[in-house]
Automatic annotation (TrEMBL):
<dbReference type="GO" id="GO:0046428">
    <property type="term" value="F:1,4-dihydroxy-2-naphthoate polyprenyltransferase activity"/>
</dbReference>
<keyword id="KW-0812">Transmembrane</keyword>
<keyword id="KW-1133">Transmembrane helix</keyword>
<feature type="transmembrane region" description="Helical">
    <location>
        <begin position="120"/>
        <end position="137"/>
    </location>
</feature>
<keyword id="KW-0808">Transferase</keyword>
<dbReference type="InterPro" id="IPR044878">
    <property type="entry name" value="UbiA_sf"/>
</dbReference>
<dbReference type="InterPro" id="IPR026046">
    <property type="entry name" value="UBIAD1"/>
</dbReference>
<feature type="transmembrane region" description="Helical">
    <location>
        <begin position="97"/>
        <end position="114"/>
    </location>
</feature>
<comment type="function">
    <text>Conversion of 1,4-dihydroxy-2-naphthoate (DHNA) to demethylmenaquinone (DMK).</text>
</comment>
<feature type="transmembrane region" description="Helical">
    <location>
        <begin position="149"/>
        <end position="168"/>
    </location>
</feature>
<comment type="similarity">
    <text>Belongs to the MenA family. Type 1 subfamily.</text>
</comment>
<keyword id="KW-0472">Membrane</keyword>
<dbReference type="InterPro" id="IPR000537">
    <property type="entry name" value="UbiA_prenyltransferase"/>
</dbReference>
<feature type="transmembrane region" description="Helical">
    <location>
        <begin position="49"/>
        <end position="66"/>
    </location>
</feature>
<dbReference type="Pfam" id="PF01040">
    <property type="entry name" value="UbiA"/>
</dbReference>
<feature type="transmembrane region" description="Helical">
    <location>
        <begin position="174"/>
        <end position="195"/>
    </location>
</feature>
<comment type="pathway">
    <text>Quinol/quinone metabolism; menaquinone biosynthesis; menaquinol from 1,4-dihydroxy-2-naphthoate: step 1/2.</text>
</comment>
Length: 298
C-alpha cells in the first residue's frame, strides 16, 4: 500500500458509496417484517422498532466498511468490477476506513444496549455476537466470508436474528408468522449477497477468496439465487393462505425480483449484474413494506 501522504482522501459522496446504500434494504426489511409480526399480534412498539432499525442499519454500514478495509489490505479488491471501494482504490488510509467501521459498530452497540434494557438484558449477548460476526466476515486471520459461509451468515443475522429479534423486543415472544417472515427475508437477503459474489467469481477466485459462489460455480450459483427468491414467494403464499390473507399483496414484490432474475438467467457477467443487486434489494424492501402496511389490517 502507498505511504500515508499519497492518499487523496474521499468526498462525502464517495464515503456514502463505500457504505454501500444499495445493501441497506438488508437492514431495513427485517425490522419492518419483525415489527409487522408484532403488530399482527397487537404488540407493535414504535420506539423499539426505531431502535432496532438503528441497530440493523449501523451494523450493515459497519460490515460494509469492515469489508472495504479487510478486503483492501488483503489486495482482494485490486481488480474489481463492483462499486468503488475506499481502501482498494487508495482514496483513504485503511485505518480511517477501519475507524469508520468501528464507529458504526459503536452506534449499533449503543442502540442495541438501550433496546435490550427495554426488553430483555440477555439480548446484549446476541448484539455482541452480531458485531463479532460482522467484523470476522472478512476480518481476522481466518475470515469465514473467505470460506463460503457469507450467505449463511447473512441468512442468520439479517434474516432470522433480525426479524425474530425485532418481534421479540416488541411482543416478548416469537410467532410462527414472525419465524416464517424471518426465513423469507433471510432468503432474499442471502440472495443479495449471493449475486454480489456471483459477479466477483473470477476476481475472488484469483485472489483466493473462496465464497459460496466460487465453490458452487457460475451455473449453480444462479440456480441457488432463483431458489432463494422463489422460497420467499412461496412462504408469502403460505402466510396469506394460512394466517393473514392481505399478506398476499406482498407478491407484488415479485415484479422487482422478476426484473432482477432476467440478467441472472441470461448468464450476464461482471458489471452487468450490478443492477440485480439494486432490484433484489428493492424487491425485498417492497415485500417488507407491504407486509408492514397490511399488518394493520389484522
Amino acid at each position: 500500500m502507498p505511504s500515508n501522504n499519497t492518499y487523496p482522501g474521499a468526498t462525502a459522496r464517495q464515503w456514502l458509496t463505500g457504505a454501500r446504500p444499495q445493501t441497506w434494504a438488508n437492514a431495513i426489511a427485517p425490522v419492518l417484517a419483525g415489527t409487522a409480526a408484532a403488530i399482527i399480534h397487537g404488540s407493535g412498539d414504535a420506539p423499539r422498532a426505531v431502535l432496532a432499525g438503528i441497530v440493523a442499519l449501523a451494523l450493515i454500514i459497519g460490515v460494509n466498511y469492515a469489508n472495504d478495509y479487510s478486503d483492501g489490505i488483503r489486495g482482494t479488491d485490486e481488480d474489481r468490477s463492483g462499486p468503488l471501494r475506499l481502501t482498494g482504490s487508495r482514496l483513504v488510509q485503511p485505518r480511517k476506513v477501519k475507524h469508520a467501521a468501528f464507529a458504526a459498530f459503536g452506534i449499533a452497540a449503543a442502540a442495541g444496549i438501550a433496546l435490550s434494557l427495554l426488553s430483555a438484558w440477555w439480548l446484549i449477548l446476541f448484539g455482541a455476537l452480531c458485531i463479532l460476526a460482522a467484523w470476522f466476515y472478512t476480518g481476522g486471520n481466518n475470515p469465514y466470508g473467505y470460506r463460503g459461509l457469507g450467505e449463511v451468515a447473512v441468512f442468520i443475522f439479517f434474516g432470522l436474528v433480525a426479524v425474530m429479534g425485532t418481534e421479540y423486543t416488541q411482543a416478548g415472544s416469537i410467532s410462527w408468522q414472525g419465524a416464517t417472515m424471518a426465513v423469507a427475508v433471510g432468503a432474499m437477503s442471502a440472495s443479495v449477497n449471493l449475486v454480489n459474489n456471483l459477479r466477483d467469481i473470477p476476481t475472488d477466485a484469483d485472489a483466493g477468496k473462496i465464497t459460496l459462489a466460487v465453490r458452487l460455480g457460475d451455473t449453480n450459483t444462479r440456480r441457488l439465487w432463483i431458489l432463494l427468491n422463489a422460497t420467499a414467494m412461496v412462504l408469502t403464499v403460505v402466510l396469506g393462505a394460512v394466517s393473514h390473507w392481505p399478506a398476499l399483496l406482498a407478491l407484488l414484490a415479485s415484479v422487482f425480483l422478476y426484473g432482477a432474475s432476467r440478467p441472472v438467467t441470461a448468464g450476464v457477467q461482471g458489471r452487468g449484474l450490478i443492477p440485480v443487486l439494486a432490484l433484489t434489494g428493492r424487491g425485498m424492501l417492497t415485500w417488507a413494506l407491504i407486509m408492514f402496511a397490511v399488518s394493520f389490517l389484522a
